[in-house]
Write a structure and sequence with these properties.
Helix content is 34%, strand content 22%. By secondary structure, it is α/β, with parallel strands linked by helices. The protein folds into three domains: 87 residues, NAD(P)-binding Rossmann-like Domain (Rossmann fold, 3-Layer(aba) Sandwich), CATH 3.40.50; 215 residues, 3-Layer(aba) Sandwich (UDP-N-acetylmuramoyl-L-alanine:D-glutamate ligase), CATH 3.40.1190; 128 residues, Protein-Tyrosine Phosphatase, Chain A (Alpha-Beta Complex). The strands form three sheets. A nine-stranded mixed sheet has the order 7-8-6-9-10-11-12-13-14, with helices on both faces. Strands 15-16-20-17-18-19 form a six-stranded mixed sheet. Strands 3-2-1-4-5 form a five-stranded parallel sheet. Helix 10 links the parallel strand 10 and strand 11. Helix 6 packs across helix 12. The longest helix has 17 residues. The N and C termini lie far apart (47 Å). The model has no long low-confidence stretch (mean pLDDT 94).
Amino acid sequence: MIPVVGFEGQRVLVLGLGRSGLAAAGALAAGGADVLCWDDGEAGRARAVADGFAVYDPLREGFDGLACVVTSPGIPHLYPAPHRVLAAAYAAGIPVDNDVGLFFRSFGGAEWDRFDVAPRVVAVTGSNGKSTTSALIAHILEGAGVEVQLAGNIGRGVLDIDPPGDGGVVVLELSSYQTDLARALTPDVAVFTNLSPYHLVRHGGMGGYFAAKRRLFAEGGPERAVIGVDEPEGVYLAGQMSEGPGDARVIRVSSGKVDGVGWDLSVRKGWLAEWRKGRQAASIDLRDVSGLPGAHNHQNAACAYGACRALGLAPRIIEQAFETFEGLPHRSQRVAEIDGVAFVNDSKATNVDAAAKALGAFKRIRWICGGLEKEGGVDALWEAGGNVSKAYVIGREAETFALKLGDIPTEVCGTMERAVARAAEDAESGDTVLLAPAAASFDQYDSFEARGADFIAQVAALPR
């Protein structure tokens, strides 16, 4: 646990008592704060009481004497409307923060004076690829013998990790919900993977969404910034962070050509190339790296490569770690091969952009898709459907979803059981049965993990 500093003897309210909220309460108490807890749900309040915390309803009992309100990331603090507790805190002039802000204000202490190498933080944000990039960075560092902890949106809560040791590295995956409100954001290395329309209602539009991501770079100024520049926002962000064309503090990642003037990484046709001041410094063939299939994972690899190079690792060490990376569950996860047919679980492809990238990673696809459609529709998938032999549509609104797939041959299946069975019946050796839903899971499942687990279970039940 990272004890939170700066609130000793002061009353702090924790709003939202899920994993991050209870971890924040414990870390605040460890730092000497007088912790009060509130959750709109009775189950959350019961968990707080079970952990020994006092329950306090600020709307009934007031905000007098509160030093801060710490809110969970999932609770709206501005758009589409702030939670009523947060609106009342703003009106009362009470500071509002989240666990990520508390982490950065509390990370470090007097014990670091005896370390030969101070611990560092790598923070990863973006629309797609955050989890894979973060896990890959941690995998590379672990392979290099570095003490590493993975936290944030993946792994443990940011305040639930152990205080790092000499030379330790903390890798954080941070969503826009986490970066938007944090009052302190000071990573040593910050990574921006890419940007596509996502969480637009929560952030009041695309500009607000990008502004939330940009805060990771603008609030504290990382020593190094690894920035994907395939979208205009990434180009803009790299320009804002750089002092000039040759500024090596900014590492640009592109799927196209790079000018090579500064520190650039290009990923083209499965090859990752590092350029320093106009000269190629290293190259890695990613085409046969089984844990990183497709151009989108090659971009993730390049972002992870840039972060690890910024930490001083050699290209050879990074390349070796690529070969042993097995990928993450529900993200281009190869779960079986039956009679020459591959079955791949990409249940995490919950939006159109992620699904399109998954469709580009394989040939001859039997595509399982559908679910709770997100903003923006699915029209963008038409262009990505060239590799699709047939789509097998699931979800409560499967018929409506299928009608939006244009000229892609479709079969309305409704359930995962039927979709897997029908795709397997139709598939021939060399085909890939790919779950890449392009939609949320909540019409049929509690989470994308539960949807992916159902896919795996149905594949396991197929006759061999």
